[in-house]
Amino acid sequence: MMEKYISIYYRLCDVTDGQNELIEEFSKDYPYHCILGIGELLDEFERQISEIEAGHEFDITLRPEQAYGEYSDEKVVEIEKETFVVDGAFDNENVYEDAVIPLRDEDGNYLKGIVMEVRDNSVIVNLNHPLAGRVLNFHGGVIENREASNKDVNNIIEEYDCVGNHCNCNCNCEDNNSKHQGECRCRHRRRE
Hints:
Blueprint: E1 4-14, E2 21-26, E3 32-35, H1 43-49, E4 57-62, E5 76-80, E6 85-86, E7 89-90, E8 100-104, E9 110-118, E10 122-126, E11 136-147, H2 150-160
Antiparallel strand pairs: 1-2, 1-3, 1-11, 4-11, 5-10, 6-7, 8-9, 9-10
């Protein structure tokens, strides 16, 4: 099966309970682009946009079970504080309320958690995705939707090879006021 390259612009809003809170936005000038089928997009969103031709708009709403799942109280865990000891002292530079921290589960899989509370002997961490339980609406349009060339695949790989405080994709992220802290406008996380 041939891989597909897609370039889209959109506004992603949380529309749970009638609200309309902007979460993320990619413009026509700084679109989101990727190779479909590599797990970068939500499955249902990818399925729906993969069939939309260039030049057409979309308005896609995903229920929690189609996006990041329902919020689960079971994913709020208490971890012993000693887990976060570095050089004999608790790592308060990285482990504090609202911090996003990298963790590993018992199978060695990497995951991220949000610190909810630092207690005397433990840390309460929320392992739910920040958008778990939310109804999400993507409103935008397709700029390109075509078979991916080897150059497209290589460009996407290079974009993931970010160094310093900018990436290698010539998006001028250091000159743009990115809405997303820690990411450039082309959506690729900066390595710090």
